[in-house]
Amino acid sequence: MACEKIPVLVYLIHMATNVEVVKTGTENSMGVLRRFTKRVQGSGILPRVRSIRYKNRNKSPGTRKKMTLKKLNRRKEVDLLIKLGKMVEKNSR
């Protein structure tokens, strides 16, 4: 019985990584799958993909400034409403 080569190409956003597993003569498909899974985990592909997937973009300085000014204005409004008795002050723990 000839050895079967199972080449697998895992695509990422910017790069491709080859993970190859060769089936030996008496090995069943579950063993090949298990070895492939271990090889993928060892190559560090999954943590890299997850870090790219869940990464948030940094806000631009203009956007940060706008949001800060908005918060300051809202805080001023809330302080005024609390002074006038139209809003109840939240007690911290």
Secondary structure layout plus pairing:
Elements lengths: L3 E8 L4 E8 L5 H15 L1 H9 L7 H24 L9
Antiparallel strand pairs: 1-2
Radius of gyration: 28 Å
* Major sheet: arrangement of strands: 1-2
The string of secondary-structure elements, in order, is EEHHH
> Helicity range of the residues?
40-55%
> Poorly predicted ranges (pLDDT <50, ≥5 residues)?
none
Figure out the total of helices. 3
Looking at the structure, what is the overall shape?
Answer: rod-shaped
User: How many E-type strands?
Assistant: 2
How many distinct domains? 2
End-to-end distance, in Å? 72 Å
Main sheet specs: 2 strands, antiparallel
Instruction: Give the oligomer, counting copies of the same chain as homo and different chains as hetero.
Output: single chain
Structural class: alpha+beta
